[in-house]
Amino acid sequence: MHVHRHWDRSKGGEKMVAKSGSRCCCCCWFLGIIVVIAVVLAVVFTIRHRANHSDDIAPGSTDKKYADALKIAMQFFNIQKSGKLENNKIPWRGDSGLKDGSEASLDLSKGLYDAGDHMKFGFPMAFTATLLSWSILEYGDHMDSLDQLDPAKDSLKWTTDFLINAHPSPNVLYIQVGDPETDHKCWDRPETMSRKRTLTKIDADTPGTEVAAETAAAMAAASLVFKESDTKYSGTLLKHAKQLFDFADNNRASYSVNIPEVQSYYNSTGYGDELLWAASWLYHATEDKTYLDFVSKNGEEFGNFGSPTWFSWDNKLPGTHVLLSRLTFFKKGLSGSKGLQGYKETAEAVMCGLIPDSPTATSSRTDGGLIWVAEWNALQHPVSSAFLATLYSDYMLTSGVDKLSCGDTSFKPSDLRKFARSQADYMLGKNPETMSYLVGYGDKYPEFVHHRGASIPGDANTGCKDGFKWLNSDEPNPNVAYGALVGGPFLNETFIDARNNSMQNEPSTYNSALVVGLLSSLVTRSSSVESFK
Ligand SMILES: *[C@@H]1O[C@H](CO)[C@@H](O)[C@H](O)[C@H]1NC(C)=O
Ligand SMILES: *[C@@H]1O[C@H](CO)[C@@H](O)[C@H](O)[C@H]1NC(C)=O
Ligand SMILES: *[C@@H]1O[C@H](CO)[C@@H](O)[C@H](O)[C@H]1NC(C)=O
Q1: Which residue windows are transmembrane per the record (predicted)?
Q2: What is the pTM of this model?
């Protein structure tokens, strides 16, 4: 069947509506004057507003479309939860994977199932946690205004609880629960699976720099999220992050080389990006200069300076370029730092590639304007690119930088945001198929999502094999996998809503983390990125 998740080897508003009083109080002349003044003010404000933020929403207001979509997107993490569920709100989900880890006397019951199957893959799961942390750090206040901050932190902690337990000693990290070959021979609900849950680990004899470093990045970023609300937990995460970074750095080797079986699923094309990404997060979490020195010294070797690439579960470089630019934007002492220059310049090159009118605009787009790089999980790249673009736009706005130069043309923060919105809008239905690729959003979304739990009725007690009748059924999924972002369209913008079409119709948890980041940035007008401490 499916599983080619590894094919992205591409390193390579609404306008302001004036709300004047609608009550008619005819004979009160002064009220009339107030109304006139209000209208004049509203018009002036609207004009100024349009001039500054051509098609952005009003300050302080929320864009309902993105707010609705964010609330839906957030639900997919709950659908993917393994373990003994708490406050479960998904009627067709229950406890599962309770004995995961028992083979090594560890509790690996928590964490998130990766996609439509029941695998827990540490590499993308850690990336999911890093992204979700980043989104919370930058846009937690936006999430909070929609009551989505606590759910986001809850889903993050569900993941980092797993990662902590998966790291029982400094140089041992469990990176996989379940054997994909065995797992993919079954089509069942996670609640009823009874097969052996094989564990895979890295250690000093069989190291894996990418996965150790990505897990370090996740824990360092999450330590910042919990810094104030749960100091002890934050300290625990940071301790693990530091140990894992040392493990990754002192035992440099690719996990895909040492454990070739992982190549069929999440094959890594190199670990330099994860080392830089992890060190960047550790610097943000600790302000320990050692980590800054690391990124300065290793940038030339691993940073791919000057060449824009695509941000994905395999390639953390564009994320690193943007994250380190944050320092040059906001930390006065570091703005001229030579070691950070290459990162900043490359972040600019990435941004210039994304803006459609830029002289260096990428040609990797569909006719409808969607960034399109790979046919497997096509939406990963537009969504990750749009997320980075809104971040960069907000960094510019907050630090008072109003110009991005691309060749001989210059652009404004609003140009980046406009690009980001175009990708989000496409994803939400503004496309030739008029299909929302975010399941549960809008009138038309995929109904045959490649997702075992969603495809089998909650009361069906299937075993491993007899569940395949649900994969092959002509009926739409009995359960809606709210918040699943499916793979997405072909380059020609067509899409086949079939359950066996895992290339286009399988969601993943890291896609949801990207979508949550993008939508939480777009729900309200770009602003100072306040919640990042
Ligand atoms: C995994 O990635 C490595 C490095 O890019 C590559 O040489 C190898 O062929 C890939 N394996 C598969 C199965 O695609
Ligand atoms: C669109 O592209 C897909 C994948 O390349 C192809 O199978 C399909 O036939 C194309 N559809 C049209 C209408 O061109
Ligand atoms: C899915 O099933 C349909 C109908 O049986 C078949 O035509 C198609 O080739 C299958 N697609 C894949 C990707 O297996």
Answers
A1: 21-45
A2: 0.90
